[in-house]
Amino acid sequence: MPTPIDNAMRSKNAVLAFSALVTGAVVWTLWGGDIFPSEPDPTGDPENWTREELRRWLAARLAQSLDRPLFPWKKLIIGFSVAQYAFEELLSLRQYQVLKNTKPPKVLQQEVSQEVYDKSQEYGRAKAKFGFIKGLWGQVQNIAFIHFDVLPKLWSWTGDLLLRFAPARFTGEISHSIAFVLTFIVIQQVLSLPMNVYHTFVLEEKFGFNKQTPKLFVTDMIKSNLLAFVFAPPILAGFLSIVQKTGTQFFYYLWMFTAGLQVFMITVYPIVILPLFNKLSPLEEGKLKSETEALAKKLNFPLHELFVIDGSKRSAHSNAYFFGLPWKKHIVIYDTLIEKSKEEEVVAVLAHELGHWKLGHTTSLFGISQVHVFYIFALFSVFINNKSLYTDFGFINEHPIIIGFILFSDILAPMDAVIKLLMNVMSRRFEFQADAFARNLGYKAELAASLIKLQIQNLSTMDADWMYASYHFSHPILSERLKALEWTPSERVTEEGSGAEKATGREL
């Protein structure tokens, strides 16, 4: 008799097959033609159709084939969600068995004491259990929202509020959609609050990692919501206006809008958003600053400013990263990284990060993200007028664009899981390349020492099931990175008795 996991896996395969079929059809139908065609639907002899006319005819047929009256979209989306959850929990179960190991990987046995390794394994198991409960809570929410028709009820309620309290000019679809999304954000915040509180003040507190006070936690939550309330309305208004005014080819314009928005956010983030949560101070004069500037000059990195960020006020997270426009970059170093590392180890970390820039990884990832965004919007153009989808979810007389996009995102989730897997494969390859770049600059020992220290301070996973790592990890595990660096332990790089203190929120 097949087990629930067997059934879930078969459902997963069906989901992926369906998604691949739809995606392939859309890519085919969208291939070629003018960028902004405006010709009417093709007429006359099909043998005389242009390539663009054929493309639009195929797109229309695909949309029609997916719009079937009484099609059980609710059951399909719930099935997608449950199958993906079951698949991911199966991977977590495999990883949980690895977290029961009692000995560290051979390459780390000289560096990691039994006490630290045991605590790392305990921390990993605690996070795995929490992840299971959090995922289950998310599934309960999702199924409840669908079963009890929360979306149409919330849409109707926010519409009634606008009719009662807002001026007439603010009662159209765009204003209604903004009110709906902001209300939805608040609801999601409330529903996720218990899990966030437990993670910060119970799980992280138990292992000595939390430095947030309840006041800071609440303040951060308020600031995050205020940012959402400031940025979401104009972004959503732009999104909906483009769809409303540009016809069936809206996805081209929407794609350009999103690309421009990304550039805008890169510019605004360090000026407006980052200072709300952290303080950036110029790096003081000294050996670290001079060596960093020399490294940037050697690599022709367009360094504009060097900052130290006060990450220690929330946790012992530490890292270094860069941001900015192509011609004007800023490097940010966590105060905890400077505190816990030797200066040459900090420079080694920066060599790794600048390796991503020099090797074109950031440009490649940005380009891939643009292709992904275009693919999402192009596929959405097939679903946007799907009456059966709206009807099955309780939207009989209204077909709001934002609702269609939310439901479409649920349908697309399985294919996004595949894309996540492929992106992780590429990301791990990039990490190996950045490590090799730092090694070739002469920072082999320093980078290895820094990676080991961060691993121990963070109680990071020291070993992993290969399937779990392939699906979830964007970075190789430490033993793989040390092997690729051709590092062999000659002397202990961590102090005897050094314990865990969380050191990284964003991995190297």
Describe the structure.
This protein is mainly alpha-helical and 508 residues long. 68% of the residues lie in helices and 5% in strands. It has 16 helices and 4 strands. The longest helix is centred in the C-terminal third of the chain and has 58 residues, at 401-458. The radius of gyration is 26 Å and the shape is globular. Residues 1-40 and 502-507 have low confidence and may be disordered.
Write the layout of secondary structure elements.
Blueprint: H1 4-29, H2 51-66, H3 73-98, H4 114-147, H5 150-165, H6 173-206, H7 214-245, H8 250-277, E1 280-282, H9 287-298, E2 303-309, E3 320-325, E4 328-334, H10 335-340, H11 343-358, H12 361-383, H13 387-392, H14 401-458, H15 466-472, H16 478-484
Parallel strand pairs: 2-4
Antiparallel strand pairs: 1-2, 3-4
Helix pairs in contact: 1-2, 1-3, 1-12, 1-14, 3-4, 3-14, 3-15, 4-6, 5-6, 6-7, 7-8, 8-12, 9-11, 11-14, 12-14, 14-16
